[in-house]
Amino acid sequence: MAESTRFATIAIVGLPNAGKSTLLNALVGEKVAATSQTPQTTRTRVLGVVNRGPLQVAFLDTPGIHKPEHALNERMMHHVDAALEDADLILWMVDANEYLGPGEHALAKRLRKQSRPVYLLLNKVDLVSKSRLLEKVVTYKDLMPFKELIPIGAKMGLNLDPLWAILERDAPEGPWEFDGDTFTDQTERSLAQEFIREKVLRKTEEEVPHGVAVAIERWIEAGQEDFPEDLDEEGVFIAAQVIVDRPNHRKILLGTGGEKIRDIRISAQRELKKLLQRPVRLELFVKVEEGWRDRPEQLDRLV
Question: What's the pLDDT tens digit per position in 136-180?
Fold first, then answer.
């Protein structure tokens, strides 16, 4: 008799910089989410689908939970709410190297109201001593009842097999919701847009990233009008706008003599070549659109 199939939608939640997107990429085995040290790198719900034997899991990476200051942030928190509503299981990810603060207490209060099982993932265990990790375990156990508590190191792929064993055990029986070849619902263009923004976040000053967005303006394949004659016929030409909400941010992004934006372009072009598995020529333009984070029509276009 064939083993019955299992399917689970699993929300990955936590405060900013807990390592949620890094974990998603590690579990999927493909880069489907942008990562950086900048808080609020993830702005939408990011789907990653994994098939393991009879099990299919749809992971939902979510923005880091924070107090909204703009319409953009409010929309980000709506993505968290939607993921929690859709989830069969919830992975609460925390940075084991940080102190438990008001944000964690507020999130624990929120998760206690959920009817779904909550699993605590203590991430970045490679950065803490065993004694401190044990203190963390005791501290978090007092916050709320967890189905399981699992120490992991998402960046290094540490202890992910025990996590998988638990998810395989607890995923409910049911038919798969995605075909066997699906690993994300994002298009090549949306992935390209996010990976360009990732490079901006990694190479700019602290005051720039939260006001940055990226829009793909042109995507030209061989045979289409305006395809560069000197570009490999298997390649793609991409032109994107890097949008900032302050004129001084544009100056920072451009850098002296355009050095900063050139560095971003080269790094992003290299990333897109890996993503698309073909030659890429990327052009970037920096544009100021003040207040875009509070304008619904811009959020619909950019987020």
Answer: 899 999 899 999 999 999 999 999 999 999 999 999 999 999 999
Alpha carbons within 13 A on the beta-carbon side of 132? 14
Residue spans of alpha helices (H) in the chain: 20-28, 71-86, 102-112, 130-141, 160-170, 188-203, 247-254, 259-276, 296-302
Length of the chain: 303
How far is the C-alpha of 5 from the C-alpha of 172, rounded, in Å?
A: 9
Q: Are 93 and 123 in contact (CB under 8 A)?
A: yes
CA nearest neighbour of 125 among 148, 147, 157? 157
Q: How many helices (H) and strands (E) does the chain have?
A: 9, 9
Q: Calculate the alpha carbon distances from 196 to 39, 123, 271 in Å.
A: 16, 26, 8
Q: How far apart are CA 267 and CA 124, in angstroms?
A: 26
217 secondary structure, DSSP code: E
Q: What is the pTM of this model?
A: 0.93
Helix (H) or strand (E) holding 215: strand 213-221
